[in-house]
């Protein structure tokens, strides 16, 4: 008997009908002999509606009150889901984040989980009942006030509970079939990725794949919680995220499938893209020690997370160089203001801001042992007639920056070049290797 | 400096604009030098919307889940009201029923308050801040689960907090100007009652006056909490409810007014009416000892609260009698079913059910020392050509049952007969005495 934590997002419980469908999935998992703990987000647009209400009331509401307000959404969905599950003859009880023992720090609006003490959840599953927990929320352990976890909060709640309970798998139910080799809206031949390591999933999530919150993947890796990203609509197996390819086991797979679990690492997992960044170029920076460091110090102090950096070779004739870096578009104004403040100190000539860039990232655990991946990537982009403006790499990722309006073409070209296209729409487990 | 507990109902916080208006009232009370604790209901139709959702999900939802669901409404309104109050420069923090220390039994859906331990509320007001508390909810002290208090729950929360905190007054803000001598929709000349005792208010509330929940008045009487029922729209003084006429002091009144506080009891406070009852008549009951007792035993066991009872004189020729009683209309079907089950045992002849009745109640603390009140009441109803079907009395109340379609005329006739009409719409403090 496995202990399964299931997480359902807001689109999976958008209305009464959807709530009932989710309850059926819960009942199936329970009737299959599993212990089941469910984490649920607020229904559909509830959170947006509450944000609208708050905006009508106050331009700058206290964060503590904002958190109390927003957590009402998950209380509604958890209670309704518990009702729907009971209605199917499966005993279920709902719990708020505080009741589930999700203890956080006091950073209202973006609290970090500091501990999980799920006594009541454990008692509930020991009685053979399903525990349904409100995602996205916890309790400030010093004040006994409710907190919200910020972006990706419900995924993180699910992973944290799975870790705290020692669950066999954490199933993330969503409105897509799993993690894909590329965004199917851009690449119609994209295939579902059956298995991926934490490291690859981290790189994909950090590079723009939205299906899983980066923070939840980090948490899962730290505690070794296997994730299963799947559709709440189709019920088909989705994407398994785990430590290595070998130890991934789908608890719902028939026994025959498990023979295939240990397989060679695939070269490439997928191609992610990201349109949310902008580029700042500082021109004419004096080529003196410490000047680049000073620039990034100032930008970091403005609150921006710098992603890629390119420094041109200094022109010997001028003794000056250009430094470009990318950052989230929304951080642009404050970073520019911070740089303007140190113009005289640094002695640069000019600032340029460009929000018409796109980033493509090729991710794959196998690339570290296969030379020639970069060359093939650059060749594919060149053959598509697209200019590469910046490059950065990690052990298992290569990212390039292009013009925003060339990004889709670049993604399609790279997807094809690495043999990721599914000719007939059929899912193939592993992408083409280095051949 | 007074400690004031203010309660705002759902119609007072129906939308963002109303929430802001309530925040202004709170700010005024605070700036006037009071310590302020606020109890708030769910916004407008929120609770009905949640009930609708639940009905779409399950025909018989677990009561625990229903309570968690419904309490979301007050969490939303309390957080929004705290935001709006902070926005006016008054520090305010919101608290759920559990956080406010409202401890209840485990009767989900209709929990009784067993204790109030408002440590956090006290700390908040000691810091000079306003505490805003979700009404209608508490915590099952054995399970740490949220409960709802049922009908009149928010009024009761306010009174219980006022008692627990030793507040000087509990102000019940509502969408009418106070308690009236009759329902102004039926009697346009009805006047606002300035002062009324707990006993009279209890009789009025039990007789159909909807402005205050009976339960909250009982609680206020038990703990001696002065109530002030007033409009959240006009801000004018409303109706004070307290132990005796003498000890009623309006904390907002100028000092000069207090000289008049000790006054003679008025004869009549008002005329209440109630259309929500039905009458069951059991005909041909054998005139043997214990038969009436058995009938009421059976009806009580069916869950019905019996109100008025009339037993006809037994006809000597038959040795049988008719017994009529009134009960809430909704309890009719189960009471009838219970009576049918004992037809052979009791040996009655027939059952009659009549939901076309109306009840008029005349309430006044002064009537116990003034003879002739009943005679004047019956005379007024007779002169209006209306038949009286049943009569019951307490020390300070006389109730009669009429046909439902004669009730409004009866209310107007009695209101006039006791000199309660306000000729020019001007409020007069005390009704005419026994002259």
UniProtKB/TrEMBL annotation, chains A, B:
Its EC number is 2.7.2.4. Keywords: Amino-acid biosynthesis, ATP-binding, Diaminopimelate biosynthesis, Kinase, Lysine biosynthesis, Nucleotide-binding, Transferase. InterPro entries: AceGlu_kinase-like_sf, ACT-like_dom_sf, ACT_Aspartokinase, ACT_dom, AKii-LysC-BS, Asp/Glu/Uridylate_kinase, Asp_kin_monofn, Asp_kinase. Gene3D superfamilies: Acetylglutamate kinase-like, VC0802-like. Pfam families: AA_kinase (PF00696), ACT_9 (PF22468). Residues 280-353, 362-435 form the ACT domain. CDD domains: AAK_AKii-LysC-BS (cd04261), ACT_AKii-LysC-BS-like_1 (cd04913), ACT_AKii-LysC-BS-like_2 (cd04936). It catalyses: L-aspartate + ATP = 4-phospho-L-aspartate + ADP. Pathway: Amino-acid biosynthesis; L-methionine biosynthesis via de novo pathway; L-homoserine from L-aspartate: step 1/3; Amino-acid biosynthesis; L-lysine biosynthesis via DAP pathway; (S)-tetrahydrodipicolinate from L-aspartate: step 1/4; Amino-acid biosynthesis; L-threonine biosynthesis; L-threonine from L-aspartate: step 1/5. It is an enzyme of class 2 (transferase). One of its GO terms (molecular function) is aspartate kinase activity. Belongs to the aspartokinase family. Catalyzes the phosphorylation of the beta-carboxyl group of aspartic acid with ATP to yield 4-phospho-L-aspartate, which is involved in the branched biosynthetic pathway leading to the biosynthesis of amino acids lysine, threonine, isoleucine and methionine. PANTHER family: ASPARTATE KINASE, ASPARTOKINASE. This is Aspartokinase. It comes from Myceligenerans pegani.
């Amino acid at each position: 008997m496995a202990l399964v934590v299931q997480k359902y997002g807001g689109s999976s419980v958008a209305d009464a009908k959807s709530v009932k469908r989710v309850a059926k999935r819960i009942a199936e998992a329970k009737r299959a002999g599993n212990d089941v703990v469910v984490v649920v987000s607020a229904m559909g647009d509830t959170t947006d509606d509450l944000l609208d209400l708050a905006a009508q009331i106050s331009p700058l509401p206290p964060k503590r009150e904002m958190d109390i307000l927003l957590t009402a959404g998950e209380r509604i969905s958890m209670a309704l889901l518990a009702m729907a599950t009971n209605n199917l003859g499966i005993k279920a009880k709902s719990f708020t984040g505080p009741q589930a023992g999700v203890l956080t720090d006091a950073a209202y609006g973006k609290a970090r989980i500091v501990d999980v003490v799920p006594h009541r959840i454990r008692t509930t599953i020991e009685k053979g009942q399903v525990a349904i927990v409100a995602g996205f929320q916890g309790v400030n352990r010093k004040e006994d006030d409710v907190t919200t976890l910020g972006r990706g909060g419900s995924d993180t709640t699910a992973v944290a509970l799975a870790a705290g309970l020692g669950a066999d798998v954490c199933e993330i139910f969503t409105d897509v079939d799993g993690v894909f080799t590329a965004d199917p809206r851009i690449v119609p031949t994209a295939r579902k990725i059956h298995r991926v390591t934490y490291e690859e999933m981290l790189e994909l999530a950090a590079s723009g794949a939205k299906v899983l919150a980066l923070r939840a993947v980090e948490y899962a890796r730290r505690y070794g919680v296997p994730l299963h990203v799947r559709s709440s609509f189709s019920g088909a197996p989705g994407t398994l995220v785990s430590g290595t390819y070998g130890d991934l086991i789908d608890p719902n797979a028939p026994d025959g499938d498990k023979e295939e679990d240990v397989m060679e690492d695939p070269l490439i997992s997928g191609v992610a893209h990201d349109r949310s960044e902008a580029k700042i170029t500082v021109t004419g920076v004096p080529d003196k020690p410490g000047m680049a460091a000073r620039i990034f110090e100032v930008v970091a102090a403005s609150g921006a997370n710098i992603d890629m950096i390119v420094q041109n070779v200094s022109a010997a004739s001028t003794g000056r160089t250009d430094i470009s870096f990318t950052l989230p578009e929304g951080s642009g104004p404050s970073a520019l203001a911070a740089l303007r403040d140190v113009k005289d100190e640094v002695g640069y000539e000019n600032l340029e801001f460009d929000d018409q860039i796109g980033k493509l990232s090729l991710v794959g655990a196998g690339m570290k042992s296969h030379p020639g991946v970069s060359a093939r990537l650059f060749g594919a982009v060149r053959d598509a007639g697209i200019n590469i403006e910046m490059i950065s790499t990690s052990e298992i990722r290569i990212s390039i920056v292009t013009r925003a309006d060339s990004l889709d073409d670049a993604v399609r070209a790279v997807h094809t070049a690495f043999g990721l296209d599914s000719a007939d729409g059929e899912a193939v487990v592993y992408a083409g290797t280095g051949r």
